[in-house]
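Quick review question:
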């Protein structure tokens, strides 16, 4: 079995002062294990001075220290090393991690040459590696980060102070603003979000390369109509996810715009054309305007909002007051919004 999600991307909200990067204590420049040889400051520079006079295991030469790491080998020069790179290519694992003697002087000399570094900056490493395979980071990274005072963080979290963001989505009452005042301020183009729903498809014992976009659209539509307190017969226009010509017809039925099996008749009788009973994709839809993945859903919301504002020009759906947008993400997810002209 493969991992359900080898890489996770999450979002969370916190106090703005928590928007700082997550530093380790002390914050290293490179994940290179130094054991005791780095001293209390965990400096690569200190490890370079360690010799047999003060370390029993360093076999005479300065900079040979004992660390716990995986042993690797270079396919090009056949040398054994703890580095992930050698001879311009990636090295291969040779032996499981254990305590072994490593010549840090040799590694740092190579790294200084590779980065064209004359004077070695102070590079903070770590005492030991916590990962399973214990593969040290390249010292080149340590040199480059140390020169620019960059640290390795605890994780890859992206943090952003949300109070720097402009406020675009709000109810007037949330900011103690009357609708009358909002209009005086020039906000007559406002659009009200009547429903915002996202669903995933239910578990089924089917081929997972055949996502069930029908069920998840039907679930989302049902929830959205309930949330908005309207039915499909109230909708003035629709922008739906017509990634293929057949998808558009399936979604007429999934969104309840017609009875099952009636999609073809809707097209034949012009019900979904501009000027028809419920115009669908007067923008041209995905097949005409393009399908830039995530931006597709935003484009559908933009299109419907443009009609509700009466700004759609030649393709304007006359008197549009209530619009529905629909987007699919394979895997599967369905997002439906019901938007209303605010007045
Ligand atoms: Zn090599």
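Suggested answer, residue by residue:
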């Amino acid at each position: 079995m493969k991992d359900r999600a080898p890489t996770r991307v999450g979002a969370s909200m916190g106090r703005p002062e928590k928007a700082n990067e997550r530093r380790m204590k002390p914050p290293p420049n490179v994940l290179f294990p130094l054991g005791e040889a780095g001293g209390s400051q965990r400096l690569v520079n200190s490890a370079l001075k360690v010799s047999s006079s003060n370390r029993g295991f360093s076999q005479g030469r300065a900079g040979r220290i004992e660390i716990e790491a995986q042993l690797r080998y270079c396919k090009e020069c056949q040398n054994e090393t703890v580095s992930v790179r050698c001879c311009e290519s990636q090295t291969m694992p040779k032996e499981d991690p254990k305590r072994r003697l490593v010549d840090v002087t040799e590694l740092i000399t190579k790294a200084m040459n590779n980065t064209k570094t004359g004077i070695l900056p102070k590079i903070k490493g770590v005492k030991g590696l916590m990962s399973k395979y214990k593969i040290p980071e390249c010292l080149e990274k340590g040199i480059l980060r140390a020169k620019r005072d960059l640290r390795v963080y605890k994780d890859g979290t992206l943090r952003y102070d949300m109070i720097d963001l402009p406020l675009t989505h709000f109810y007037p009452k949330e900011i103690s603003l009357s609708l009358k005042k909002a209009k005086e301020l020039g906000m007559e183009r406002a659009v009200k979000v009547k429903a915002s729903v996202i669903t995933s498809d239910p578990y089924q014992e089917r081929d997972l390369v055949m996502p069930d976009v029908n069920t998840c659209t039907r679930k989302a539509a049902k929830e959205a109509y309930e949330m908005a307190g309207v039915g499909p017969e109230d909708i003035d226009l629709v922008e739906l996810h017509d990634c293929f010509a057949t998808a558009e017809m399936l979604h007429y039925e999934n969104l309840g715009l017609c009875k099952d099996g009636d999609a073809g008749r809707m097209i034949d009788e012009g019900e979904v054309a501009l000027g028809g009973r419920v115009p669908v994709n007067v923008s041209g839809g995905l097949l005409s305007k393009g399908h830039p993945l995530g931006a597709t859903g935003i484009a559908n919301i933009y299109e419907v909002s443009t009609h509700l504002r009466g700004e759609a020009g030649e393709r304007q759906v006359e008197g549009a007051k209530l619009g529905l947008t629909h987007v699919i993400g394979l895997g599967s997810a369905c997002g439906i919004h019901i938007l209303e002209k605010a007045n």
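Why it works: Residues 52-56 have pLDDT under 50 and may be disordered. Residues 21-147 form one domain.
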